[in-house]
Amino acid sequence: MSIIFDLASYTSILIIILSIFQTIVGIGILVLGTPVLLLFGFEMIEVMTILLPLSIINSVTNVIYLKKKFKRVDIDFKMRNYFFLICLPGIFIGLIVLKIFNNVLNFNLLVAFVIWSFLAISFINKKKKIQISDAFKKVLIFLTGIIHGVTNSGGSLLSILIVSTHSKNVNFIRYQIIFFYFFLALFHYLSILLIFNFNFLDDLNLNYIVSLLVGIIIGNILSNRINAAQLRNCIFVLAFVSSIFLITQA
């Protein structure tokens, strides 16, 4: 009984920390939470049961908060069109690939390599000030969807792309990432319900929701001290750490 209590307590603390990260930089609950909970001994279905609804709640809460607090923040309409037409279908394809080839391919190593490639492209673009073409951006967005469907790590790629494309104020960048990540997680959730016939909301723990809300409050307080450059660096570090987690589980 004490073991179960301790595990539940650690999980609640973890959710607070992940919620703070996701509130500040737009990602974290799925990107870091998935490998950490697997290391805790949870099964993948349990991980999904805990994290997917929490990620969705975190994102939609922060979208509403940012829109109300910073009335001028808005979405990149070109990115919006690419996202809904290219990225979301990619998630569905990724889940089908996962279902068919789960025992054949090592997806963790593959995704870690793609994350490193995204990071390298972003650093090169920043150093040489190369503009990412629309055609290449579409390829990256489609890959983001597929990878999110396979491993839950598409948020890293999405955030790298957004922060590498926009150089506006930190709240504009945060809003872009949180807005699109909400739909990324929501469509992922709906796709899994359709493909794997699971109902994650049955086991959603009230303690986890409270922990999530605590993290959202703390995260929004801390975000006032973050500038665009720091946000960019946080996202790069988070993406690199998530790739390391993927490799350790390969």
Helices and strands, with pairings:
Layout: H1 2-25, H2 33-39, H3 44-69, H4 77-101, H5 107-128, H6 134-151, H7 154-165, H8 170-196, H9 206-222, H10 228-248
Helix pairs in contact: 1-9, 2-3, 3-8, 3-9, 4-6, 4-8, 5-6, 5-7, 5-10, 6-7, 7-8, 7-10
Describe this structure in words.
It is a single chain. Helix 1 packs parallel to helix 9, helix 4 packs parallel to helix 8 and helix 5 runs parallel beside helix 7 (154-165). The chain is mainly α. Mean pLDDT is 81; it is low at 1-5. The chain starts with a helix and ends with a helix. It has one domain (2-248). The protein has helices at residues 2-25, 33-39, 44-69, 77-101, 107-128, 134-151, 154-165, 170-196, 206-222, 228-248. The chain is globular, with a radius of gyration of 17 Å.
Task: Summarize this structure as a short list of keywords or feature phrases.
disordered N terminus, globular
What is the structure about, briefly put?
The chain is an all-alpha fold.
User: What kind of sheet is the major sheet?
Assistant: none
Strand content: under 5%
What is the helix tally? 10
Any idea how many domains? 1
Helix content: over 70%
Coarse morphology? globular
Q: Let me know the number of strands.
A: 0
Report the structural category. Answer: mainly alpha
**Uncertain regions: pLDDT < 50 for 5+ in a row?**
1-5
Q: What would you report as the Rg, rounded to the nearest angstrom? A: 17 Å
